[in-house]
Here is the input.
Amino acid sequence: MAGYSAAVELTRALIRQNTVNPPGNETRCNAILRPLLETAGFEVLEHAFGEGRSNLIVRIEGADKSRLPIAFTGHVDTVPLGTKKWNWDSFKAEIVEDRLYGRGSSDMKSGVAAFVDACISRRDELARGPGVLLIITAAEETGCEGAFALTCDSSVLGVAGALIVAEPTANYPFVGHKGAIWLRAVAEGVTAHGSMPEKGVNAVMKAARAAVRLDDFDFNQKRHNVLGGPTLNVGTFHGGLNVNSVPDCAELGLDVRTVPGQTNASVTAGIAIVLGNDITVSPVLDVDPIWTEPEHPWVQQVFAILEPILGERLEVRGAPYFTDGAALKPALGNPPTIILGPGEAHMAHQTDEYCLISRIDQAVKAYIQIIDAWCRGHQR
Here is the structure.
């Protein structure tokens, strides 16, 4: 099908690669992106951390060494398809009017394609100026594993002057997101025959009582003026092997979302106290919130660029979900960070996921203007 922009066609090519995580197989997308970027004159390093799993670190070293490069990041793994039947083939990248269907279309292969296309189009300007760093990650959907793997070696990434995370925001700039703690809370008991429960210790009852204690958990934290308050959800409850035995083990899965001003360690400690000594708590995921002050000059510049593109006056917003920015922002020297991508946030992880073609082209336009402003050196 002809007539679509390079960014749209690249999005389609990436969607056609099945990178459902697990198992991921993100190297399928990297096999498309790496030669494209190398042909365009970028330096590409593939950072492998498992079979079929790798990140791409892509650079243009700028001639202007007095300023730091601008950085973009996005992931190419996706969540599973779900149990509901799709009306559109999840990997054919079919287009119907302004909609491009497929798993990963909004979350977030369109974002990766848009910043890759924008950077290729401004390759010479970036080379003459401060340069650019593209971080294309694997395994984001299972807790930013790929991004955290990169942070283990500080020499891989270097530092950046600003960071754009191309997660789905319908091209509306967000200045931060909540943090996340996933906790495994385990209760242990003593098994016995179900007809003689007094001979055992019921771990399910221990876990149930603990779960009820969390129903009105007090974070003792002032609401963030943009991101709101922290939240806690008991997402899973598993216990027992058969109905006629006293269960000797039960497990809760907790999803906690934190806001700037909290430390994940203190929140975890507080939850452990409320659960009590009968419950063993261990972290499964620990991702900090990120926040850039809206008054930062670069943030204001990005807002000024986006307002005429979006045709509206922008307000300060943040995301309830977490991103690879949580791992990469501190590793890159804590640059100002904006979450900005063409995908539709409400379509992330949905059946019949789609993105809008017009948003992809709009994102390329926005990224190019942001790159041009960075190269001019108005913000450092």
About this structure: The mean pLDDT is 96. The chain has two domains: 6-177+290-376, 179-287. The first strand starts at residue 43 and ends at 50.
